[in-house]
Design goal:
It is built from 8 helices and 15 strands. It is α/β, with parallel strands linked by helices. It has 2 domains: 121 residues, Nucleotidyltransferase, domain 5; 108 residues, ATPase, nucleotide binding domain (Nucleotidyltransferase, domain 5). Helix 3 crosses helix 8. The chain starts with 6 loop residues before the first strand and ends in an 8-residue tail after the last helix. Bound molecules: beta-D-glucopyranose.
Length: 260
């Protein structure tokens, strides 16, 4: 299926899992099943391109693909991607994903994809004045800044360093599972992160996505915040849906060929 308007394949490349689905762009939801593959250890661009090809074939999709990546798309390479291999940093690393005869992908940072999905299909409140900070808690901590209805890409707030190291290292979804953090222990680590961002950026609201969206009530209720916090409207599928939106917008020429 590839009619270029109503549906689009979106893929979310995580540090643990690569998942993809055909997205119904009018409804902002999955049009079919979600297809997943484990991310290989030290996954290289060609490993990921091959996985995208398999997912596209399983979904019966041909044509351009929207791909959300866990790092900053910087010209021909990907930076700040500690959960993939260093091969992504080499010039030209992204060529195999973009090649029309390969994955033919439109690329976007994974947290920005989640933010784009929220902007497109989420709470209408995101269109009002002010700054919404979207934080995705998965293998890493991703961030998207939504300002007056626009996405400000590549914010990388999870790299902020607190007194016990970077918040991505101590308070991500991976830290919760590998260290078996209770909601109280997690909140003790995450609270200074939110406090710091509140002081620096004065957001008017927070949205939490990634794996933590499935346990949002247990964890987020422990935070002490002065502004409202909600779970990502599209939950764990926000990256897949946002990747599909990025590809469809690129096709229509609304935001250039890619979102950087
Ligand atoms: C990367 C971000 C990404 C986040 C979530 C971080 O390690 O630097 O670009 O959004 O992980 O995957």
């Amino acid at each position: 299926m590839s009619d270029g308007t109503a549906a689009q394949l979106g893929i979310d490349v995580g540090g643990t899992t690569i998942k993809g689905a055909v997205v119904d762009l009018a409804a902002g939801d999955l049009a079919g099943g979600i297809h997943t593959e484990p991310t290989p250890p030290e996954a290289s661009p060609s490993d990921v391109a091959a996985a995208i090809g398999r997912i596209a074939a399983t979904a019966g999709w041909s044509g351009p693909v929207g791909v959300a990546l866990p790092g900053v798309i910087d010209g021909s390479c990907l930076r700040h991607a500690p959960n993939l291999s260093s091969a992504w940093e080499e010039n030209g690393a992204l060529a195999c994903l973009r090649a029309p005869e390969g994955a033919n992908a439109v690329l976007i940072n994974d947290a920005d994809a989640a933010g784009l999905a929220e902007l497109t299909y989420g709470d209408a409140g995101l269109d009002r004045d002010g700054l919404t900070i979207v934080l995705t808690f998965g293998t890493g901590i991703g961030s998207a800044l939504l300002h007056n209805g626009d996405l400000i890409a590549n914010s990388e707030l999870g790299g902020l360093v607190g007194s016990n190291g970077s918040f991505e290292e101590i308070a991500s979804g991976r830290a919760i599972s590998s260290e078996e953090l209770s909601p109280v222990e997690w909140a003790r680590r995450a609270q200074p992160f939110f406090d710091e961002l509140e002081t620096m950026l004065n957001p008017s609201r927070w949205v939490v996505g990634g794996g933590l969206s499935e346990n949002f009530d247990r964890f987020a209720s422990r935070l002490r915040l002065s502004k409202p916090i909600s779970v990502a409207h599209l939950g764990v599928h926000a990256g897949v849906v946002g990747a599909a939106v990025a590809a469809s917008r690129a096709g229509r020429g609304r935001e250039g060929s890619e979102l950087r």
